[in-house]
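Input sequence (172 aa), recorded before submission:
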Amino acid sequence: MSNYYQILGVSHFASSGDLRKAFREKAKCFHPDVNHSVSAAREFKRVNEAYQVLKDSEKRRIYDMRLHNGYPSQKVYYRPGKVKYRARGDRYAHYDTREQVDTYSELFEKYFDIVLFITLLFVGCFGLFYGLYRLLVNPSEDLNPYPGIVMGVLFTGLIIFFWRTKDKFFKG
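Predicted structure, token format:
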């Protein structure tokens, strides 16, 4: 397992400023525009990977745990793009980035809100129409249709009002 701290030449307790400074020094030496050897390009990729892992606090925490426990590490931490497979013999699944997970949860919440809104709107409209039906088509002396009509109008109006103003309530 490659030691990212040794690659950058910093200690385990290095701050983000120290990491950035060490990365820039190494990047100047091994950048493909400056150093044209094949090994320099390979070394630049390793330096970039080490910096990408160590600059993010969550990736660094996971890397430190794996480094301390001695688990083998492939390029699990820094992969550009989505990887949704588990390679044969690989101990760790490759997950999406935090931004993609957030978009999935936001998409789920959006569709859940729409389904909930349509369901509650249907309940409100059903109460309204059933009250109107009992009032106009099939009046009964023992059932009063007015509370159903009032509750249907009130419920439907409140659902539509909260749907239109929900962003104002949940942003604060």
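Checked by second reader. Residues 98-136 form the longest helix (39 residues).
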